[in-house]
Write a structure and sequence with these properties.
By secondary structure, this protein is mostly helical. It has one domain: Orthogonal Bundle (ABC transporter involved in vitamin B12 uptake, BtuC), CATH 1.10.3470. It is 80% helix and 0% strand. It contains twelve helices and no strands. α2 packs parallel to α4. The longest helix has 27 residues. The radius of gyration is 19 Å and the shape is globular. The termini are far apart. 38% of the residues are buried.
């Protein structure tokens, strides 16, 4: 049984590597649900592709999904203001709900493929193939390399936007580049693992790390460590207790954030 879990475990490690990093950016920006919104936009692109005659898992469907995601990236980069009457999180929520409603309308026209599309949105990391794992690793490695090369600008616009503006850095341009690469990740991750698991990998390791340090590098290292621990425990529980893999990992993440919060509280009490 454990042999069957090797590929899902490797997929989890790949998700940890990219999502823990992006999650720190997302939490710093205060746009917690941008992952869900972009995932829903990507799903809308997929169902539109099916409506016009493309195969659900075809290259054309993937490219259309990416195209829709890039539109979402443009919207989110253009709606980030230093001082705004409407919080950007509200814009993200509106985009999410409108995309979900539009997807329902499109699905009403392709009932024969509804079940297949549902399976794609839910995801099943237990049945990933070696080809999927390799393709995802190569894509995320390329995105990670891009972020490493331009890490100073990406980190500055997420953590210190006022400083970036003073230095003459185009926040809208770098915001768009951030959300565009984020869109690549979300489009691939949702198909691989489903929305719930992807959201957990994005937010929970970052939140847990932020309980203990403000340094970006230390947060990233701690997020990677905690994500790996949660993945190991979740995959082990799934294999030994015959539990759904994705749900098991999400529940372990829930325990992890609870434990981190309690540790932070104890640490604060001891130092006061």
């Amino acid at each position: 049984m454990l042999d069957l879990m090797i590929l899902p475990f490797l997929a989890c490690l790949i998700l940890t590597g990219i999502h823990a990093y992006l999650g720190i950016h997302v939490v710093e920006r205060g746009v917690i649900f941008v992952d869900l919104a972009l995932a829903q936009i990507a799903a809308l692109g997929s169902v539109v592709a099916v409506l016009v005659g493309c195969g659900l898992h075809s290259t054309h469907a993937y490219l259309m999904s990416l195209g829709f995601t890039f539109v979402g990236a443009a919207i989110f980069s253009l709606t980030r203001f230093k001082k705004a009457d409407v919080p950007q999180e509200a814009i993200i929520g509106i985009v999410y709900i409108v995309s979900a409603a539009a997807a329902i309308l499109v699905l009403d026209r392709v009932p024969s493929d509804a079940q297949h599309i549902k399976e794609m949105l839910v995801g099943n990391i237990l049945f990933v193939s070696g080809g999927q794992v390799l393709k995802t690793f190569l894509l995320y490695a390329a995105i990670g390399a891009l972020h490493f090369v331009f890490r100073k600008k990406f980190i500055m616009i997420s953590c210190r936007p006022d400083e970036a503006q003073k230095q003459g850095i185009s926040i809208r341009l770098w915001d768009f580049l951030f959300y565009m690469t984020f869109g690549f990740v979300v489009t691939s991750s949702v198909e691989l693992a489903g929305v719930l698991l992807v959201f957990s990998y994005l937010i929970i390791p970052a939140v847990c790390a932020m309980f203990f340090t403000r340094d970006f590098g230390k947060r990233l290292a701690l997020g990677w460590t905690l994500g790996t621990v949660a993945s190991s425990a979740g995959v082990w529980a799934s294999a030994t207790l015959d539990l759904p893999t994705g749900a098991a990992i999400v529940c372990v993440f829930g325990i992890l954030v609870l434990g981190s919060g309690m540790a932070k509280y104890a640490r604060t009490r001891m130092s006061s």
